[in-house]
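User: Hi! I'm working on a homework problem where we have to compare a predicted structure to a textbook description. Could you give me the structure for the chain below?
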Amino acid sequence: MNFLVLTEGTGELLTNVARDLNLYFPDSSITIAKAKSYAQQKQNFLHKFSFLFSKLKKRGISFYSKKLISLCIDKFISYLSFSPSYNQCLTFHNVNIVSLEDHTPSCLLPYIQDIDFCFVIGCRILSKETCSILPHNTFVVHSCDPRFVKGVCLPSFWETIYDLDFFRLTLLRLAPKLDSGEIIYQEEFPLVESKYTPVMIQNNAIPLMIIKSVLGERKILNWDPSIKQHVKKTITKQDLKQFNQKRHGLNKIV
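Assistant: Happy to help. Predicted structure tokens:
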């Protein structure tokens, strides 16, 4: 079985997905096609310098000096403990990593031959042309219920703002229209104070949801239409402020 993962990021979620796919399907081929993010494509040296200067002006050199020292200490401890890097983890799980300029058809064509399942994790909206060349079993990871929020979101973000007592994770089939595809699999989690943050829950739940979807399992939770539907593509500073005021045992977003 051949798997393709489209992403613009790195991190624990992707590592866990690769680990579990390799564990459940040891003879499979796994390719992660990582494209440059919007910021990486558009920002030149001047943009980056201006952004850094504005951050220093806002928080001060002392604040970022402490953060830099803390980061260096973490890196040093990681080096002493021989903690593997992100790429080393993926290589250990027999993952082929390719870096692309973008997820356009011309960039993806060499990697979509004989693909059985494709998973979209942390990407911008894919073009209609890209959607048309990807396999039917292309599933998008969405950190919410798409009947509640479509577009970019963080796990539990909008649920916290709208005072819900739960949040959901969803796999849905890729469609040209934003987050409008068939729901494939969902899980629901209570929004309570816990040592496990929604991001930690997501990083551990999504891989198992992907495995179940590959095995043909389907789980679609009921949705109460009386709950306000809030379709939004971007998160504003005001949204972040409101989230931080209402969060329940969640890590503060800075």
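For your comparison, note the following. The mean pLDDT is 82. The longest strand covers residues 166-173. Good luck with the assignment!
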